[in-house]
Each structure stands twice: as structure tokens, then as C-alpha cells.
Amino acid sequence: MSTSNIAVIGDRDSVFCFNAIGVDVFPVADGAQAREAFERAYRGGYAIIFITEAFASQMEDRLRELAWRPLPSVVLIPDNRGSRGLGLTKVRETVKKAVGADIFAEERER
Length: 110
Hints:
The protein is α/β, with parallel strands linked by helices. Helices cover 45% and strands 17% of the residues. The radius of gyration is 15 Å and the shape is globular. The termini are far apart.
């Protein structure tokens, strides 16, 4: 592993630019490669793993297993085609579990 504590997993076009800021990039072409890259990053001790929503949706079971562990922090990001809304949905679910209410829904009602 390099000196970076951050990994990014996704299609090449969406993640390659992260190289410029010193983040370790794992370009993948399909769900199987994304799972392999995720496991390498997980075992590699990365504190933060960014993964594009498209590939995260293909490994929801594994992400759910790790959701309440302090590390790594898994953050869903849109790919170069745009957001699917999965990242916001994950944040909303986490906040709802922690607070006991959907505070985002309450804000929309105001």
C-alpha cells in the first residue's frame, strides 16, 4: 500500500482523476473486479474507501456487513454519468438510525 490512506474504486473514466491528488485508484470494469478491489482495499487498511454508486449497488451485501464498523469509512460517489441517489440514501438511512427520525424529510416539510 502507498502512503495514501484513501482508495477510490470505480470505472476508469470516473476515478482516474483522483490520481492527481495522491489518492490510490482501483479502476475496475465490472462488479467482480469491484468486489476484488474492495477486498484488497479493505485488507490494505485504507481508512476511507470511495466507491462509485454503480459498483456499490452490486455489493450492497458486503457494504452492509461493514456499515457499523468504525473503519473503513465507505463513501458512495457518483460516476461520470451522474448520481443515482444511492449516496444520499445511505446517508439518510444512517442518520435515521442514529437519530431515530428522518430529519431530511422534516426539513423538506418546512
